[in-house]
Amino acid sequence: MNGRVVTKKHKRADRGGAEEDDRAPPEPDLISSLPDCVLGTIVSLLDTDEGARTATLSRRWRHVWHAAPLNLDDDGLPFTFDRGDRLIVSVVTGILAAHRGPARRLALSFVYLSRNAATFDAWLRLPLLDALQELDLCFYLDIPYPQLPVSVLRFAASLRALDLQNCRFPAADCFSGSPAFPCLTHLSLYEVIIDEELLQGIVSNSPGIETMKLHNNFGHRRLSLSNLPRLRRLAVAVKGCFMKREEEMELDDLVVEDAGSLEQLILDRITYRPSVHITTATKLNVLGYLRLQTGFPVFYLGNLVFDKRMLPVSSGKQLSTVRTLALDVAKPNLKQVIDSLRCFPSIEKLHIKTENWWMSLEGAGGFDALVTPIECLDRSLKIIELQPYKGYNSHVEFAKFFVERAKVLELMKFSGCGGDSPRWVQDQHRLLNAASKASRHAQFSLGDEIESRNWMQYCFTRDDPFSEE
User: Fold this and answer.
1) Rounded-to-integer distance, Cα 8 and Cα 23, Å
2) Best-predicted range by mean pLDDT among 249-258, 340-349, 353-362?
3) Is the pLDDT of residue 136 over 70?
């Protein structure tokens, strides 16, 4: 015995034949066998750097990315603070010049518009952008806001998604009439200055819009959404607290008529508190934040009418479609929260955030929950999130009401606790009277995480816009 391990390929070689490989034959490359048009569609869905790397896979793939619908996003391109945006501008220019196919998406967030206005205009006029479907321009914050070139409107007929941030929309006198976006399904404006008549015209001429975000914009006081039969998600924020620009006009009056498809209404940072009128919201299932105590001058939601403290004007009116409700409470006033809950008998998730938790709890004011039951606490409320929760007496008394009353509660989450030692957590369970909880299935979660200030930018990417999980 010479210790040699004899295999089939060795036996074949010993008999004078070629060595036979034991390995199974490679799996057929089914993807590469697809037509070029299909491969191009697949590649166009990849990030810019990933799409470019497909050219190195094989000779079959070498030409695909250069001819596929271009998805150009500078988020994956090289950027250095010492060179600023010069390298990005150079790389983008090179890609646009070399690409042989059409462009599907253009997303730029690392280029200054103020010092590259001519370059932007030249890019937007290139023939490969003629049928652009998605345009996402997020500019660095410059004061005064730089104005977009008029050429941005030449894609109006083909655009499906338009995202703009930190810029000034071209003035109405730069073109005749209001541009129409017949294919537009998504519109997002963040810190954009746009004339009221122009914004109203764009929205009115875009009947296919399904999602819309209007975040801290200026230049208009009133907006009526009356020709949007497909609008499912609407998010509005007025006046971010990080800047003070009282000299600019902001949204004062929002009207949504015939909102039969509206499923989510998201409101945030409503410092100037515009009046809100929503009619025929028969599918609305996500609502918030409703700011109690310092709410809207007027808030109409279907047959519900709220006063300026966001309390229902008339009793007995309900909106049973809402499943997720978010309340912004200036101070822990239990009675006002209870009055609001009465309007929404089918809530399954309740988010409550407040700014002044150190203030003493304002209780139920003689209200007897046992005599006057709250429908959602008895039948539907499964998840409650309170933030921030520090374990102060006002926090404990506020939370304990729900622990002792929510009969089908599954999870009560306390965020922004600032203390999560085993001893502290054990003390909170005792103080909250967890042993006498109304629902035997209820679990309690205490953690440090707290809602990001920019949560609204990503609210449409989650089933629950108010939860970052």
Assistant:
1) 11
2) 340-349
3) yes
Bridge partner residues of 458 (DSSP): none
User: Residue ranges per domain, the chain?
Assistant: 33-68
How far, in Å, are 5, 11, 24, 292, 416 from residue 14 at the CA level? 13, 5, 22, 88, 74
Please enumerate, as own/partner, the contacts of 153-157 that have beta carbons within 8 Å and a separation of 24 or more: 153/179, 154/124, 154/125, 155/124, 155/129, 155/131, 156/180, 156/181, 157/181, 157/182, 157/183
Q: Residue 9 has what DSSP assignment?
A: H
Helix (H, G, I), strand (E, B) or coil at 399: helix
SS3 350: strand
Integer Cα distance of 350 and 385 in angstroms: 6
Cβ burial of 362 (10 Å; 0-12, 13-18, 19+) is middle
Residue with tokens 């622990």: 403
pLDDT tens-digit readout, 404-434 = 999 999 999 988 886 668 888 888 889 988 8
- In whole angstroms, give the CA distance from residue 379 to residue 382: 9
Q: Which 3 state secondary structure label does DSSP give 185?
A: coil
1 contact partners, CB below 8 Å, separation of at least 6:
none
Residue 317 clears pLDDT 80, i.e. is over it: no
